[in-house]
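Provenance and format

Records in this collection were gathered into a single text stream. Each protein contributes a sequence line and a token line. The two records reproduced below are adjacent in the stream.
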Amino acid sequence: MGARKRISAEQRKEALKTVSFAKLNNVPTSPRKMRYVADMIRGLEVNRALGVLKFSNKEAAARVEKLLRSAIANWEAKNGRQAEAGELYVSLIYVDSAAMLKRLRPAPQGRGYRIRKRSNHVTLQVDTRNENKN
């Protein structure tokens, strides 16, 4: 690895040490369905986001709720204190597509139609409100 790449990689790693996030890889749900759930909680305070996810009818909401609880626990472990009400919010959440399973379904006249079973990666980051205002 060249010197410039190594320096920029180290800077990225240092920046990630100050951020509390959680990742969920290879979720067997299509990215489009997961993005609907991600859009529901983006920018919300964490307690309100947990309520939205708990009472959502979407199947992907249960997975994102578990991921959000993990991100909150990561923040608490990193800062050494409990999260207070109204302090944390979902600062960043995005969904990327992951590997796609390709299957064949029988079709008329000896043909085969391709089925794409999509999956995704979800990244969720929590931050405190008062840090961003300063």
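Adjacent record:
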Amino acid sequence: MVGSDDRIHSYRASGGIEQWVNEDFLRRKLSAPIALNDFIAVADREGYLHLLAPEDGEVVGRVKVDGDGVSVPMVASVIAGGEGESARETLFVLDNSGNLTAYQFQMEDSQ
């Protein structure tokens, strides 16, 4: 959940106990967060898409989407893979310039 002050809060589904808070984006006018398989995604008025680890809220990735920002909700969908490819979760981002971009993410091995 994103609060009115742009703090991102994560709560346990069972019991509603707060797990973590991320205060890195104060006054950035964040979009509603969206959960992907391995990430939580939020976008901001400065045009950045931020990926957070669901376990602790740490930023694990960032990409500049558009200089005019992002203010509409993002949409995630599973896109079927081609022959021999598995389906992948895709994030669609509509920026304030009217461009629609699809993103697919994967974690890089840290070894």
